[in-house]
């Protein structure tokens, strides 16, 4: 994985490391932020550090910390996983942001940077994201990002509370990317204009 950050207007994606645990813990320990994550919420910085260590050691992952450009604050994390260059595909996940950043340009631009990396640097044919069937906010966000709902894997995963979840799958293909890229760029511009005014 490249050590070069992916640079945007309001965020940069930098290579994630266990050293980001302290900066990420306030958001990762927020029950509302973590509500739909498929693993138990970390209770300590050390627990989060160990999870980041596992993630970053996985050769099928490319993991990023999301850093706000204007002050360098780490405001979230996002990853590619199940990256298969031979089959030209990946999934995007393990994404969360500090609640203060919800609704702003940060998630949209991080997806723009990650999707650009997937389709233009790695030349992938396909990327996918999945979400809990009860997470309506995420489903709406994925639709706004321009992804196509492919279907549902029933009783796909166990939630941290022991209940079973269905996973809704969304995807984006390389030939759809140019249109989605322009939509995302326009959304970033619309969301950043008030910040830069």
UniProtKB/TrEMBL annotation:
Signal sequence extent: none
InterPro entries for the chain: Acyl_CoA_acyltransferase, GNAT_dom
Name of one Pfam family that matches: Acetyltransf_3
Coiled-coil stretches noted in the UniProt entry, renumbered to this chain: none
Domain of life: Bacteria
N-acetyltransferase domain sequence ranges: 11-175
Protein's UniProt name: GNAT family protein
Annotated source species: Streptomyces mirabilis
């Amino acid at each position: 994985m490249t050590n070069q950050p992916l640079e945007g207007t309001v965020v940069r994606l930098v290579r994630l490391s266990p050293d980001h645990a302290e900066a990420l813990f306030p958001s990762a320990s927020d029950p509302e932020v973590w509500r739909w994550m498929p693993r138990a919420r970390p209770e300590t910085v050390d627990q989060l550090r160990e999870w980041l260590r596992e993630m970053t050691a996985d050769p099928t992952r490319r993991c990023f910390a999301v850093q706000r450009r204007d002050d360098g604050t780490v405001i979230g994390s996002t990853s590619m996983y199940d990256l298969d260059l031979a089959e030209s595909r990946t999934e995007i996940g393990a994404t969360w942001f500090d609640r203060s950043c919800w609704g702003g340009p940060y998630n949209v631009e991080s997806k723009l940077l990650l999707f650009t990396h997937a389709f233009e640097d790695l030349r992938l044919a396909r990327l996918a994201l999945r979400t809990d069937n009860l997470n309506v906010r995420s489903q709406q966000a994925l639709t706004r990002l321009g992804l196509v709902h492919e279907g549902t894997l029933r009783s796909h995963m166990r939630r941290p509370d022991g209940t079973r979840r269905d996973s809704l799958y969304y995807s984006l293909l390389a030939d759809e990317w140019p249109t989605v890229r322009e939509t995302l760029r326009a959304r970033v511009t619309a969301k950043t204009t008030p910040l830069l005014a």
